[in-house]
Amino acid sequence: MVFGILSNNEAKKERKGWMKQATEGPCNVPKPGVLDFINKAKWDAWNALGSLPKETARHNYVDLVSSLSASSESSIQVTPAADRKQPGSDALVVTSQDGITTITLNRPDKKNALTTQMYHDIMLALEAASKDDSAITVLTGNGDYYCSGNDLTNFTDIPPGGVEEKARSGAVLLRDFVDRFIDFPKPLVAVVNGPAVGISVTILGLFDIVYATDRATFHTPFSHLGQSPEGCSSYTFPKIMGPSKATEMLVFGKKLTAREACTQGLVTEVFPDSTFQKEVWVRLKAYSKLPPNAMRISKQVIRNTEKEKLHAINAEESNILRERWLSDECMNAVVSFLSKKAKL
Ligand SMILES: CCCCCC/C=C/C(=O)SCCNC(=O)CCNC(=O)[C@H](O)C(C)(C)COP(=O)(O)OP(=O)(O)OC[C@H]1O[C@@H](n2cnc3c(N)ncnc32)[C@H](O)[C@@H]1OP(=O)(O)O
């Protein structure tokens, strides 16, 4: 690692310097006055990097962010990739009962944020569910959240190929992950047991039914994070709720209540939290007794005409996000979250 352990303030100034060098090249603005302490400190950090190439600065900036995560002096705790939960661990629980295969996100202490490993495990679980003898597949969460979206510490796990390689492999993973939802052959139901954020919201447009507790909220803060929509939401959301409501969510990050999401057509039905689990599972058990082949074929009739288009949109969104992940705006948002300065 390029950097040692820095105090929070030192790290912040140093980070600013690397970030400016990475995005704008060598320092090209006049030195602020001596009384302008903050800007002068930032200018000093930038100027100290001399004519270092942008690319080197970008690599070092990412290393610094990673070192922030690993630093024992910082308040940030990041589990190293090697220590993250492995397939078959309890971060994802898959059960099959009464003709229903249920995939449960099970990191309640992290609001069910999705680690890289979990994306892979969900894909495996969907693959298995598509072939098992269940009639319906359900995705839900354990604890007070449905899912807080992509685990932002995924960004700190930089491979030897650097940040570009990380963005490239992330885009491939994203595209594969969303493709599985586009192609899933059986009725797919989201049982949204609490707030949903980011990618856990966008992929709802690819589900067949979305049941939500009245405690759930639906939040896609992509602009706040310097990112852009995925999960085919750039197509499904305008189609479901109209372009203007979709823009409020996907561009301006408006958080919807469960009832608003239901009115907009993203959610099928909202239940009182006190009876949510009971009512939903009674309903799903009844549906799961319907003839499975008829349900599968009816789903195909409804969905198949759009598949090709959805795959093309997924590819395009993933490419755009690959660029976004390298942007100053995105890196700053991730650093802010990891430094505990920002929450949604
Ligand atoms: C293959 C790659 C595909 C990527 C596709 C692109 C995907 C995009 C997205 O999904 S964008 C959305 C990303 N998510 C966020 O920005 C949410 C960040 N989290 C928060 O803002 C808040 O944690 C909260 C509003 C969800 C909940 O707040 P609160 O109720 O106050 O709880 P805590 O913040 O104390 O959370 C408890 C614990 O969980 C950790 N955590 C929660 N969400 C995430 C997350 N998305 N990534 C990493 N960690 C998360 C949080 O840091 C706390 O950890 P701690 O107890 O402090 O160790």
UniProtKB/TrEMBL annotation:
Superkingdom of the source species: Eukaryota
Its gene is: ECI2
The EC class name is isomerase
Under the heading PANTHER family, the entry gives: ENOYL-COA DELTA ISOMERASE 2, PTHR43684
Gene Ontology MF terms: delta(3)-delta(2)-enoyl-CoA isomerase activity; fatty-acyl-CoA binding
What Enzyme Commission number(s) appear in the record?
5.3.3.8
Its main localization is other
Q: Which residues form the ACB domain?
A: 1-74
Cell compartments where the protein resides: Peroxisome
Reactions mediated catalytically: (3E)-nonenoyl-CoA = (2E)-nonenoyl-CoA; a (3E)-enoyl-CoA = a 4-saturated (2E)-enoyl-CoA; a (3Z)-enoyl-CoA = a 4-saturated (2E)-enoyl-CoA
For this record, an example GO cellular component is: mitochondrion
The name this protein carries in UniProt is Delta(3)-Delta(2)-enoyl-CoA isomerase
Q: Which residues form a coiled coil?
A: none
Keywords (A to Z) from UniProt: Isomerase, Peroxisome
